[in-house]
Amino acid sequence: KDTANSKFWATYKKVSDEYDNDFLERANDDMGVILTFAGLLSAVNSSFIGSMQPDPGDTTNVLLLKLIQITANPNAVHDISNLSSSDGYSSLTVCMQTFAYTSLVFSVLAASGAVLGKQW
User: Fold this and answer.
1) Of 57, 54, 77, which is closest to residue 65 (Cα–Cα)?
2) Torsion angle in degrees (nearest 10) through CA of 89, 91, 95, 97
3) What was the pLDDT predicted at 85?
4) Is pTM, for the whole model, over 0.85?
5) In this structure, are residues 31 and 117 in contact, taking their beta carbons and an 8 Å threshold?
6) Phi/psi at 90 (5° precision)
7) CA angle (98 as vertex; 96, 104 as ends), nearest 5
8) What is the pLDDT of residue 87?
């Protein structure tokens, strides 16, 4: 009876160790894929967000034009309250940036989760 019981546990340990090792290997490979995908998505998303930002050259050009006008005609009254080069963002731009930033946050969270999973 004792030898049958010990054979059972020896076989169980062998089979369960094989199953556990296989499971951990697959999980580790999956975390590597998730980490790679999340990193690539974050890089693409960051460049997309950067391209949606307003051009700082437009503001510089407006300010330079105003300085030239003030220098050319110093005695005139110059209104500098409307120096903004943009009229604000359209609702579509705000919506697109919201989605882009949300996507970036989730991809960074996925990458963090994959790193934690690989270290565990």
Assistant:
1) 57
2) -10
3) 54
4) no
5) yes
6) -75, 160
7) 100
8) 65
What is the pLDDT at residue 2? 67
pLDDT at 84: 62
Q: Name the stretches of the chain with pLDDT < 70.
A: 1-2, 82-87
Which residues have C-beta within 8 Å of that of residue 54, sequence separation ≥ 6? 85, 86
Give residues with Cβ within 8 angstroms of 61, minimum separation 6: 85
Nearest to 85 by CA among 56, 52, 114: 56
Count of Cβ atoms closer than 10 Å to residue 38 Cβ? 20
Give 21's contacts (C-beta < 8 A, 6+ positions apart): none
Residue with tokens 């050009």: 61
